[in-house]
Amino acid sequence: MQVNDFMDSLIEESTSLEPAPVPAVFSPPMSDKERSKLRYCSLLCYQVKGCIWRLVTADANALLLPTLVLKRRQLITVFFCRHFRPPHGEGKLFVSRRSLLDELFEVNHIRTIYHMFIALLILFILSTLVVDFIDEGRLVLEFDLLVYAFGQFPLVVCTWICMFLSVLFIPYTLFYLWAQSHSGSHSHLRLYSLLFGTLFLLYQALGLGFLPTYTVVTNSFPPASCFIIILEQVRLMMKAHSFVRENVPRVLAWCKEKNVVPQVSQYLYFLFAPTLIYRDKYPRNPVIRWGYVVSKLLQVLGCLFYAYYVFVRLCIPQFRSISLQLFDLRAMVLCVFNSILPGVLVLFLGFFAFLHCWLNAFAEMLRFADRMFYKDWWNSTSFANYYRTWNVVVHDWLYYYVYRDFLRMSQKRCRPAAMLFVFTVSAVVHEYILAICFGFFYPVLFCLFMCFGMMFNFILHDKRKGPIWNIIMWTSLFLGQGVIICLYSQEWYAQRYCPLKEPSFFELLKPRSWSCERPDDRL
């Protein structure tokens, strides 16, 4: 009787409490603080189970009740810890937390660096206006590059709407029908699973894979418009995979006891949420700070104009001329080093605009409370840590659905092979995006990923500590950005200066910048 009274009071008190923040137990790597909290939670669960067992086997000895009552609050914490645990005890735990830059910008010393970048943008604008005034005799405020890059925008919007509606209804409908077939007494369950699994893979390959790419290529979308469609294509494919991957084990485990198919509203929220890991529920903030949303969207717009001036002032003048020359080692070396500054600026702008501003804006509008979209990658002393902390959103998807699933299928025997497979998948997807958006195949990024990226991942591993390794990491990163900007920019102009009338398959794969020397009138 005393046990029942105690459990009733425990449940009543738990309903009046908000869930305590829980560390991301399975989000690699954990900090020392997170590990200590996990050990404490595990020890507490063990102690509570022991107390309850002794209480039951001792005929509810009243002497043990004070011990349980003193740990009532701790029991409630454990209750909520289990409530927010991912399915089957695995996966990422979402916790209410702010983005790292939002916390750092509260420090005046760090915010000054942000002000320095704004001052540099002002100087870019002034230099462009002054040069145009000297050359043209008037102020030129035309943004031809932006207008060209975002061309055919109405068609982009229509294509995106079709993609989104298809990924909203088709994967959910297929999963719902498959779950219904498993919830009843149907025979041939394996045949049903094969049928719906095949239909889902066909939709991923054709509906989301082929059709958007075909639309982009046949309509000759300009680069920025193309990036919008292709990046959304990859994002929606990863979202659909996560939804099915997270819910299939639940149906197999619980289908005979209750209906575990998520609601459409939960799936719709996930499609907009700034995460690639599906959960029925996420930690939510109580209110939407619309001023914060507006400021982040304005910062995205500012980064867009910042990138425009970087290309106009630092890239276009250089590559217009160098793309007309045959390959020369000295010119190539100078080109790479001259491209480091614009490459690094583009890297910072892309990180700040998307991973910080864009994702935080959507997270705020959706009251999504877990804002750990990145970690302190700038402090990395190894490329292994850099890959984990640069883009946490994508890394989580690769870790749980590629790396861990590969280990599970190989019975944890091939960790190096699993890591190589992750690198290959990431490199292929990155190169696919660039090839479609730029309109040519030039596997510079793929080679950097698979050759230097893999090599540095093992050489600059997590055991490397100290400032010197952070310097080496930054030096390699800067040099890599210079190589990417230099080679892709040269190939972009070479494709326009030296078009092929009837190209063969080999000529399509061969970089045009290796042999182009005939100028054309086009930009």
TrEMBL record:
Where found in the cell? Endoplasmic reticulum membrane
> At the top level of its lineage, which domain of life is listed?
Eukaryota
Single annotated GO MF: fatty-acyl-CoA binding
Q: Per the UniProt entry, what are the Gene Ontology biological process annotations, in alphabetical order?
A: cholesterol efflux; cholesterol metabolic process
Q: How does it sit in the membrane?
A: Multi-pass membrane protein
Q: Which reactions fall under this protein's catalytic activity?
A: octadecanoyl-CoA + cholesterol = cholesteryl octadecanoate + CoA; (11Z)-octadecenoyl-CoA + cholesterol = cholesteryl (11Z)-octadecenoate + CoA; (9Z,12Z)-octadecadienoyl-CoA + cholesterol = cholesteryl (9Z,12Z)-octadecadienoate + CoA; cholesterol + hexadecanoyl-CoA = cholesteryl hexadecanoate + CoA
Task: Respond yes or no to whether keyword Transferase is given for this record.
Answer: yes
GO cellular-component terms in the record? endoplasmic reticulum membrane
- Could you tell me the keywords of this UniProt record? Acyltransferase, Disulfide bond, Endoplasmic reticulum, Membrane, Phosphoprotein, Transferase, Transmembrane, Transmembrane helix
What parts of the sequence cross the membrane?
113-134, 154-179, 191-214, 290-311, 332-363, 383-402, 440-459, 471-490
What family is this? Belongs to the membrane-bound acyltransferase family. Sterol o-acyltransferase subfamily.
Q: Under what name is this protein listed?
A: Sterol O-acyltransferase 1
Q: Which organism is it from?
A: Neolamprologus brichardi (Fairy cichlid)
